Amino acid sequence: MCVHLKLDTVDSTNTYAKTHYRELPDGSVVSARIQTAGRGRVGRKWHSGSGLDITASFIFQNLGQPFLAGAITGVAAIGLLEETVPELAPFLKWPNDIYVRHFKLSGMLSEAVWEQGKMQCIICGIGMNVNSGEDLLFSAGQPAVSLYSLTGRHFDVDFLIERLAKIVNRCYIICQQYPQDVFSQWREYNRLIGHRIEVVDPSGKSMCGVFRDVSPDGAMIFETEDGVRRLFNCGDVKINAQSLIF
Ligand code: BTN
Question: Which is the closest atom of ligand 1 to the Cα of 126?
Fold first, then answer.
């Protein structure tokens, strides 16, 4: 039976889950009202409003492929958004962001925990801007939005975290038997497939090309004038309003 551990204040739910995963059953989630040192991808900080936004980390101990942690969490989060704010048409931006038009609504950070040369689990943390106002919204590199800034409505964050935990749990169970089903949904929500994008590597070098597809191991198949390459990790995928004519 998985557990939902609700913390008031923590440095980072990902850091907490990485330190305490042994005490928590597989599939558990750690959420917090306040994060004092939230972390994002490529060493960035993640800011969220106290008690205003979703900050939660899921523990996955039984996945065939590490990228599936982000795929499960991303597919579940899109499911949550589709039932809560169906008018928004959110989509996944590879590897693990959720966008509404060209604005970032949510980001995920997947981290593997290794001990004695063996991967013990993957922690996937999600931050979603829910009730933060424009003054609090911050996202390096891309403009950010919250559900509140998009709709003018406030949402019950505790209810949304509970729902998200239920949907992630269901998706995790499916994934253990039918990983290809979760992969297909993840691929379908990656709506930039087929579009021109800009990829910036961690050193800041930029490449323009076409996002051809995702492969079953989670890589992005990216075509530039120099040829086709498979990307597992990159700093950023940049989009602008023109990349988004679906
Ligand atoms: C990104 O967009 O760069 C990823 C952001 C991930 C933020 C979440 S909030 C909950 C969990 N705890 C953290 O410190 N980070 C993740």
Answer: 8
